[in-house]
Design brief:
Blueprint lengths: L18 H12 L10 H10 L6 H8 L2 E4 L2 H11 L11 E5 L14 H4 L8 E5 L8 H6 L7 E5 L2 E2 L2 H11 L3 E5 L2 E2 L9 E3 L9 E6 L2 H8 L2 E3 L6 E6 L10 H4 L3 H11 L15 E6 L3 E8 L10 E8 L7 H8 L6 E5 L10 H4 L1 H7 L11 E4 L14 H8 L1 H5 L3 E3 L12
Parallel strand pairs: 1-2, 2-3, 3-4, 4-6, 5-7, 6-9, 8-10, 9-11, 11-12, 14-15, 15-16, 16-17
Antiparallel strand pairs: 12-13, 13-14
């Protein structure tokens, strides 16, 4: 008898445990508290368990359908067959990812069938669209997408030609959290109109986060769509590039009037008359890795008599790059900030000439339209400072030299010991 034909016997007299015990063990594996949402190891372990014997398959499938990824019409057909095999399975799907293969020129017509053919997923918490071209979706997709309501909506590497395509998805899914990961605007023959999503259309939306590799992607999104809603509390767009792309004209594109009008409209929505109305975002931020950050914030009143939340502007900028953040100030000054905070770490080098580069910043910051409640602008460190660098130089004096107009008017409030100054030790 060959080796393959030899019957295998356990080396010891192993007991035959009831299937209920094995299912309990699988349940414990699936409920591993160390598991994170992005951890794929759990699915791999459950797949291995499902290959042990047929009796283990139903319980493994029960947990494997928590997170589903659809990549083709065959996968869609297989999922429908599985979900309809038991009335309990649709309720087990918590996360659904609809992902094309990364090629926008391939047939994506099957994606429009997903909301129509998939049984109602009543416990769906997260919906992701990945590499989907919204221009190719038919009317059924938009009509039946309301059946896929979820708490989290993620749009990853999605193509769109009209901002209304993004707005319709958000209005259909009604998420609490919305995230963009590299969505791309594709020019169409018929230009779309800028959108102002006011009122209660996004009645559950609380947070919006966007992560992009190019500044122009943020520009395309924000200049055509002003996101607003009664529950919206935080909006943040991040440019992940560590340095500015030399092919783009940052002097024209970063202080773009349209994008900062959209940012200020998200912060001070035209749908609301004043901060006392309540449903206004506590944070609208634009973060860049190469230039700095502009954060429009609302803080809770410090006294019980104050009913209006305080508006705060945080500007984080680098000392050794061209100054574009200073050019943004006139575009958002109408928000009338109670408090302004500059976050920076002054440095000197032979190539940097901050005295000339911060001239526009100095003039704009000292303009009366940006006058704060107490007439001061606080300056604090941007990050953990190197005390050795300021051993023989005073950071406060360096800051006052590059902002001479603000210094002459007594606007800047800067304490050198915040940078662990060695010239003026505490």
């Amino acid at each position: 008898m060959s080796r393959l034909e030899t019957q295998w016997d356990p080396p010891f007299d192993a007991p035959h445990l009831p299937i209920e015990i094995w299912e309990s063990i699988i349940d414990v594996l699936a409920a591993d508290p160390a598991r994170t949402e992005e951890d794929e190891a759990l699915n791999a372990h459950l797949l291995e368990c499902s290959l042990v014997c047929r009796a283990w398959v139903p319980r493994c499938r029960y947990h494997l359908c928590n997170k589903v990824t659809l990549r083709s019409v065959d996968g869609l057909t297989s999922l429908i067959r599985y979900l309809t095999s038991s009335p309990d399975f649709p309720a087990r799907v918590y996360s659904l990812c609809i992902a094309a293969n990364g090629y926008y020129d391939e047939d994506q017509s099957w994606i429009s069938q997903v909301p129509v053919r998939v049984p109602r997923l009543q416990n769906l918490r997260e919906l992701e669209l990945s590499y989907v071209d919204l221009r190719d979706q038919n009317v059924q997709f938009w009509k039946f997408l309301t059946l896929m309501s979820a708490d989290r909506l993620r749009l990853r590497r999605v193509n769109y030609s009209l901002h209304s395509q993004l707005s319709r998805i958000v209005a259909a899914v009604q998420p609490v959290s919305l995230s963009f990961d590299q969505v791309w605007f594709v020019e169409d023959s018929i230009p779309g109109r800028p959108l102002l999503s006011c009122g209660t259309r996004f009645h559950r939306l609380e947070t919006v986060e966007g992560s992009f590799d190019k500044w122009t992607s943020i520009l395309d999104l924000v200049e055509g769509w002003t996101i607003s809603g009664p529950s919206l509390s935080s909006v943040q767009f991040t440019d992940r590039a560590s340095v500015a792309d030399p092919s783009e004209l940052w002097e024209d594109q970063f202080p773009n009037k349209t994008i900062w009008r959209g940012v200020s409209d998200m912060f001070q929505s035209p749908c609301c008359d004043s901060d006392s109305d309540g449903p206004l975002p506590a944070k609208v931020a634009v973060e860049t890795g190469w230039e700095g950050s502009v954060r429009l914030l609302r803080t809770t009143p410090t006294t019980t008599t104050a009913s209006e939340r305080r508006r705060k502007l945080e500007l984080e900028f680098r000392w050794d790059v061209p100054d574009y953040i200073g050019l943004v100030l006139p575009l958002i000054s109408h928000c009338q900030f109670h408090e302004i905070v500059l976050m920076t770490d002054p440095v000197t080098s032979e190539t940097s000439q901050p005295h000339h580069r911060f001239h526009a910043f100095d003039e704009n910051l000292s303009h009366p339209s940006l006058a704060t409640e107490d007439g001061k602008v606080r300056v604090i460190p941007a990050e953990e400072t190197d005390s050795q660098y300021y051993k023989d130089r005073c950071p406060a004096e360096m800051i006052l030299r590059v902002f001479p107009t603000c210094a002459a008017r007594g606007i800047l409030e800067v304490r050198c010991h915040d940078w662990e100054c060695g010239v003026h030790p505490v």
